[in-house]
Amino acid sequence: MADPESLLEQLRGHFGSRLIEAHLAYGEVTIELAPGDLVPAMTELRDLDAFRFEQLLDVAGVDYAAYGSDEWITEQATGSGFSRGVTEPGFGRLGLTGIYGVQGVAESTGRRFAGVYHLLSLAHNHRLRVRCYAEDDDLPVLPTLTGVWPSANWPEREAFDLYGLIFEGHPDLRRILTDYGFVGHPFRKDFPLIGNVEPRYDPEKGRVVYGPVEIEPRVLVPRVIRDDNRYRGRPQSASTEDQADG
């Protein structure tokens, strides 16, 4: 691949203040654009000889809610296993408590949902990652890029299906992976892991019907017993020996 640092300097020099952020990480350049600048900037990245990003590889939706936070506590590991179970409602399981307040209602930050675009320049052997945050967390809207790269059609439908991102101007924005009657967007962090509804076959109606989920929300943490070279030669606890004998 060509020098990514030179690409970064080119991007900064050309787009200037239109770049909200531009940095180099893991050998690839990432830039951030505002929704209003997305389509014209992407068109320039495709057409200008200095860039010539002919190919859109992928469009990925991202939910940055509780980014960098973890509900699992792994600092209390003991010889008898991990004491890291969830003791209170955590994000993505029983609600938004602890992340967006007691009521689970968040103020729109404009930094929760984003579209991440991966571009490839065959002419210059460059790769580029472009991130664009939707301005409203409750109704995340981004402009479609199907007019710049027709290949954005299905990836944008996938981001709409799984994250609820609305791509304004898309010619056929509908679900592509989930069922026609699916409720919600399963890759959002506040979507329950057990789902909202469950299907079953109704013999009287002769078809599949949907009803409320009957599974009780819970978190199961298995006990981990390690037996490898890190622990060989150490005295085992009685409980561990009993389990090994059994």
Textual characterization of the structure:
The protein has about 250 residues and is α+β, with helices and mostly antiparallel strands. It has a domain at about 1-65 and about 110-175: Beta Polymerase, domain 2, CATH 3.30.460.80. The chain has four helices and eleven strands, in the order αββαββββββαβββα. It has helices at about 5-15, 35-45, 155-165, 240-245, and strands spanning about 20-25, 30, 55-65, 75-80, 80, 115-120, 125-135, 140-145, 165-170, 195-200, 205-210. The strands form four sheets. It has a five-stranded mixed beta sheet with strand order 1-2-7-6-3. A two-stranded antiparallel ribbon has the order 4-5. Strands 8-9 form a two-stranded parallel sheet. Strand 6 (about 115-120) and strand 7 form a beta hairpin. The chain is globular. Residues about 80-105 and about 240-245 have low confidence and may be disordered.
CATH class of the domain at 1-63 and 111-177: Alpha Beta
Determine the N-to-C terminus distance. Answer: 56 Å
CATH architecture label of the domain at 1-63 and 111-177: 2-Layer Sandwich
What is the element string, with H for helices and E for strands?
Answer: HEEHEEEEEEHEEEH
Structural class: alpha+beta
Task: Please name the defining characteristics of this protein.
alpha+beta, 4 helices, Beta Polymerase, domain 2, 246 residues, 24% strand, two-stranded antiparallel sheet
